[in-house]
């Protein structure tokens, strides 16, 4: 069932905009949402319009900080949850610049607007008529032109020569999905319908398994990270794929990118903890670039099958990894770690598990409930090939954290 029917959507983008502005202002001022709801009902709005106004106001407030035009745009709550971060959309649609593009599963238009701003001639396709009405409004207020088409994205007839961009739903019943068969629509069906002989980009869960049977084998797989957060993967097919590239990692907002080409990977050897712990950026780990990075800085793995690296020499500063000096290597025994903490007397500690099946909360209690926080010592519970180790680390002096732009 649609979150917003077409009739209500048309009212919302016309006469309902004033109500959205008023409700947004009331919620910003701290007014209770229940009182706002009662006032809307008292004004004569029916249930559908009341829900639409509250939903649009709530979505607008959540969109601030990420969407520059949030005060003019209209979303439903669900559509905003499904929309890509604007800076991710901007990065992704650069490959579509100046081309004819059919944006399937367009929703309220985040990717559509980004592609149009890059000069693409975009046709937005969605089967939800209400969302298409909001998309038309969002295009108008941001000054871009797009064509709209209501259709099932698996059945729509895309003209020859057009590129296809698809952002399937990655939530089912409120939970995120990673299997490509669970995307809406399923990725295998999307690729079969539109990816056989044309340039195509399909947005995937960043947690996609690299052995998923529906992952297109001939695609370039890009993993995109914003700040410290891994946000999405993209399968690029045919002419949109970079020649010879199997996988790519991208760091935003800076736009750093590096690639993995064909051929067997040279795996780093496994060895004991060194003087420094090296945590490779998640996007690079997912793109299987951590061995390449380890070779560049002379680091080795702490365990086979794990991406955590270690080195005896301080690696040069890089956005592709974080470095933490190792101050102690201890057995995986709470009493030993607690004794070390008692002697070191840190202000705050952070507990992080790396592959060990441990209850971090139970460990924290076993350590005597020390003050917790990210700015002090870190207790790294690390799986190794012979069991595990506890590495006590601290951020390297002068090291800069990646930040979200």
Structure explained in plain terms:
The protein has 405 residues and is α/β, with parallel strands linked by helices. It has three domains: 6-66; 83-261, Vaccinia Virus protein VP39 (Rossmann fold, 3-Layer(aba) Sandwich); 276-394. 30% of the residues lie in helices and 25% in strands. It has 13 helices and 18 strands. The chain has helices spanning 6-12, 17-28, 33-42, 47-63, 77-82, 86-93, 110-117, 129-142, 187-194, 282-286, 290-297, 334-344, 360-366, and strands at residues 100-104, 121-126, 147-150, 163-166, 171-172, 175-176, 200-204, 220-226, 229-237, 245-252, 256-261, 276-280, 300-301, 309-311, 321-330, 349-354, 377-384, 387-394. A nine-stranded mixed beta sheet has the order 3-2-1-4-7-9-8-10-11, with helices on both faces. A seven-stranded mixed beta sheet has the order 13-14-12-15-18-17-16. A two-stranded antiparallel ribbon has the order 5-6. Strand 10 and strand 11 (256-261) form a beta hairpin. Helix 1 (6-12) packs across helix 4, helix 1 (6-12) packs parallel to helix 8 and helix 6 (86-93) crosses helix 7 (110-117). It is globular, with a radius of gyration of 25 Å. Residues 398-405 have low confidence and may be disordered.
Please state the structural category.
Answer: alpha/beta
Number of strands: 18
Low-confidence stretches: 398-405
User: How many domains make up the 3D coordinates?
Assistant: 3
Q: What best-fitting shape do the alpha-carbon axes yield?
A: globular
- Global Rg: 25 Å
Characterize the biggest β-sheet.
Answer: 9 strands, mixed
- Head-to-tail CA distance between termini: 36 Å
Spatial strand order of the main sheet: 3-2-1-4-7-9-8-10-11
CATH class (first level) name of the largest domain: Alpha Beta
Say what the CATH topology of the largest domain is: Rossmann fold
Helical coverage, percent range: 25-40%
CATH superfamily of the largest domain: Vaccinia Virus protein VP39
Q: Counting H and I runs of at least 4 residues, what is the number of helices? A: 13
CATH architecture of the largest domain: 3-Layer(aba) Sandwich
Q: Average pLDDT across residues?
A: 93
Percent strand equals 15-25%
GO molecular function, one term: methyltransferase activity
Protein name: THUMP-like domain-containing protein
Pfam families: Methyltransf_15
């Amino acid at each position: 069932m649609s979150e917003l029917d077409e009739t209500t959507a048309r009212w919302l983008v016309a006469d309902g905009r004033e109500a959205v502005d008023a409700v947004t202002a009331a919620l910003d001022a701290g007014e209770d949402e229940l009182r706002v709801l009662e006032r809307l009902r008292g004004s004569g709005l029916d249930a559908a319009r009341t829900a639409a106004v509250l939903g649009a106001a709530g979505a607008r407030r959540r969109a601030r900080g990420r969407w520059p035009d949030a005060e003019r745009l209209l979303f439903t709550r669900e559509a905003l949850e499904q929309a890509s971060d604007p800076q991710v959309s901007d990065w992704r649609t650069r490959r579509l610049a100046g081309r004819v593009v059919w944006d399937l599963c367009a929703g309220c238009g985040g990717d559509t607007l980004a592609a149009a701003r890059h000069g693409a001639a975009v046709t937005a396709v969605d089967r939800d008529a209400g969302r298409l009405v909001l998309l038309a409004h969002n295009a108008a207020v941001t000054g871009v032109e797009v064509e709209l088409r209501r259709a099932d994205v698996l059945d729509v007839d895309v003209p020859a020569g057009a590129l296809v961009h698809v952002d399937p739903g990655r939530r089912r019943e409120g939970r995120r999905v990673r299997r490509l068969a669970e995307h809406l629509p399923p990725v295998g069906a999307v690729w079969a319908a539109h990816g056989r002989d044309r340039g195509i980009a399909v947005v995937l869960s960043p947690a996609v398994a690299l052995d998923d049977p529906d992952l297109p084998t001939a695609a370039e797989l890009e993993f995109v990270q914003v700040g410290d957060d891994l946000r999405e993967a993209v399968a690029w097919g045919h002419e949109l794929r970079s020649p010879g590239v199997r996988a790519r990692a991208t760091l935003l907002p800076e736009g750093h990118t590096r690639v993995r080409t064909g051929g067997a990977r040279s795996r780093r050897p496994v060895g004991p903890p060194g003087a420094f712990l090296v945590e490779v950026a998640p996007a690079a780990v997912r793109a299987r670039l951590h061995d390449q990075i380890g070779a560049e800085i002379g680091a080795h793995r702490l365990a086979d099958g794990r991406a955590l690296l270690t080195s005896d020499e301080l690696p040069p500063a890089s956005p592709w990894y974080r470095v933490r000096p190792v101050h102690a290597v201890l057995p995986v025994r709470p009493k030993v770690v607690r004794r070390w903490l008692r002697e070191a007397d840190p202000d705050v500690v952070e507990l992080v598990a790396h592959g060990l099946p441990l209850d971090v909360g139970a460990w924290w209690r076993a350590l005597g409930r020390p003050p917790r926080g990210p700015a002090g010592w870190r207790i790294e519970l690390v799986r190794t090939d012979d069991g595990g180790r506890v590495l006590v680390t601290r951020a390297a002096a002068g090291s800069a954290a990646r930040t979200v732009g």
